[in-house]
């Protein structure tokens, strides 16, 4: 047994991370000293919260600040507005759960238990909130009676609209006994609670839990499109508060496609939720806990000024205990013994963990008190909702409006980053080898917050259904990802077609074989023998013909530009349009959206297929967003397959092509289920309401007709 009693060296970071070496080192200094280190840091980032500043920022620090951080929620006094985030027994490896619960008692803060049932030692702590999640793992009346409060978990920021996921490799005997599930089997929570399908259902559960236990009840949700309505509904149903978990929050396991494409930033969610509650007269005696990427006391102060009462630190607490951000939580091989499989090989020393986490909370609290001193405030309660103290720099006017702050407007260009980042290549390589949605862990590194956006869809986020409508469980229910094109002549099991015109012969054969096997299609110049029934070709042999010139009964291939937007309304007698970004000079997102809008206004949208084609479409997340912007299907380049193959073994290409297409189909189903969509073609196509933009250029925002994240 290897016992971890000290910090491990921080590995060199070869990719962009939110939790940079500088942020990790700051947390470690707090944890080693218990003293304040730094306030008002200036991080070079596209994250909205990093572009919000206090108008007055004096970085001077005292070890004995005057301001008080004491607060109270639901009748519970807290030494500081810190909630140690909901991390389950199983996601964490036992000792970290014990440490977090004990530290909450020692420091007068609060801690969440997560959904994995109660570790016996954790159950001894008094300042814990027990979680009541969709699977009810290990939950009974006795469990609910422990601690200070109850959290009904509807959603979480790393995987909005889907349930929790503990891989079977981490379900060892102790976890099996606590969660009351079989050893070695994936523990996948249902996406919705099967007794909560409406706001009224939620109200009944809140009342029942209060009646049964006499404890305050909070509801945890992910920050998604309808967060103002969701929080308003939770307040009206009698909950004591809400935990809003923003995009980028950490987790033990989540599909990459969900983590990186669904949900909105916590700062926008908090600001909009606080505003609605105030407008409706429900803000008093209702607590907002803000979670997701709270990296330091300055983040906490900004979120409180935007309307939060308390902030949740989950990943920050793990880093204080030694996390080095290697994103291996889901496979159970954590080098710091925080999220590893419980198999007797390694563990974190409880005394070490207690010391550093207590110090971290003390140092964090002192930094927060120093911020209050520098702002001329005497208590944390004086900071709540003080938007007038903030200013935004480098934000769009729509974002500033949602935040409710003054600011310097800046319209950022949409293309700032690398189209094929190393992480995207690694994800595609795993997808092509396994054929199942790729699982990862910890916080999102996706654009626009961490990696720089490479195209417009990188600024867009999809919805996660919760409270106001139920999500759909893609692991247990059939979600229809199929599309019919050309008036029913073409059936696709998913809205993806591969362009194989210039593909090497072995890749062409593999993609054709896989497309036939999975009822997809290929875009080609000449149909190959045996594959005519899945070919959209220029010759007369495929299931449908395409041409660059107008031909009756043939798809017309048009460049992605302004001229094409005007031309489409004059063309008749064709099944539809293929808009090719590689031939045009306009971003495909804008042209697809404008053509879709124009055809709808004319009342002829259903008469034509609108197919988006580009060598710059990279994965299922891109496909999903293009469909929501108005495309009926997407033509991807065979080069996506080449990127997925990488430099590895090129044997068995047919199986790998099959895995890629099958993996995309499953990921589209995941995104659809998270958004509450049963039928992708009938519900998603052109449904911009399922999208929100994060600080996107105002001109492009108007062109797309997509709302800004946090808006009503």
Automatic annotation (TrEMBL):
Gene3D superfamilies: Aldolase class I (3.20.20.70). One of its GO terms (molecular function) is glutamate synthase (NADPH) activity. Transmembrane segments: none annotated. Residues 425-485 form the Glutamate synthase central-N domain. Pfam families: Glu_syn_central, Glu_synthase. CDD domains: GltS_FMN. One of its GO terms (biological process) is glutamate biosynthetic process. Residues 70-377 form the Glutamate synthase domain. InterPro entries: Aldolase_TIM, GltB, GltB_archl_type, Glu_synth_centr_N, Glu_synthdom. Its cofactor is FMN. Keywords: Amino-acid biosynthesis, Flavoprotein, FMN, Glutamate biosynthesis, NADP, Oxidoreductase. Its EC number is 1.4.1.13. Signal peptide: none annotated. It comes from the Archaea. It catalyses: 2 L-glutamate + NADP(+) = L-glutamine + 2-oxoglutarate + NADPH + H(+). It is an enzyme of class 1 (oxidoreductase). Belongs to the glutamate synthase family. This is Archaeal glutamate synthase [NADPH].
